[in-house]
Prior knowledge:
The chain is mainly alpha-helical and 250 residues long. It has eight helices and four strands. The protein has helices at residues 26-38, 46-66, 73-97, 103-127, 133-157, 169-185, 198-228, 234-245, and strands spanning 18-20, 159-161, 188-191, 194-197. Helix 1 (26-38) packs across helix 3 and helix 4 (103-127) runs antiparallel to helix 5 (133-157).
Amino acid sequence: MSATTTPAASGPAFKDATRVLTSVLAPIEKRALVWLAHRMPARVNSDHLTGVALAAMAGAGLSFWLSSVWPPALVLVVVCLALNWFGDSLDGTLARVRRHQRPRYGFYVDHVVDAVGTLLLVGGMGLSGFMSPSVALMLLVAYFLLTIEVGLATHALGTFTISFFKVGPTELRILLSIGALALLAKPTATILGRELLLFDVGGVMAIAGLLATFGYSAARNTVALYRSEPIPTQGVSARRTAEAIRPTRR
């Protein structure tokens, strides 16, 4: 669904944010989503697809948790991630193809659903035994930190950045799916002679990547905003202050 920066439907004039999606699979994904949108039954709308996305992410978290006692449930993780891609990626495309856009509603609901879904997914990973709870918690904090920064930049700059360094949500789902299947073969990795949980190693790498992306994006956006709103010179500032306090002649 489309991005927005205005919280109230009855508020000031609304201007939709510009979507920036430059991931590796974006061109192919866009064509596939438009193709699917044109073939969706009329009774299915974007809200249904958003519900599928949330249910699928909850299913992925539950499947991770279930894998602690039944490892084949890791295959269900992959299925749920595919369903999440279908619902989460197609809901906005369907709305745009049918010209049923609700940009404020869509942006808000999508981000709430993403936050809840990520909490359920990472929570399931932390309960699975394949990832330490402390690593899962740090991963969740790093993800939410970047999400908050993206939301603030959307409001302040009018640009909704969906991918960084050619990696977007679809690529992350694929990497997580590969990792889940790899757990079936060997849930550990040997680093410098130490046996570590495979998902702890991957989780730490993901945390580092998310924090580095947060730092890069925050610095870039801060510079852009500073350049667009520089500190006034002393002379200009003093003149404006004098004009502001000068009594109005009757």
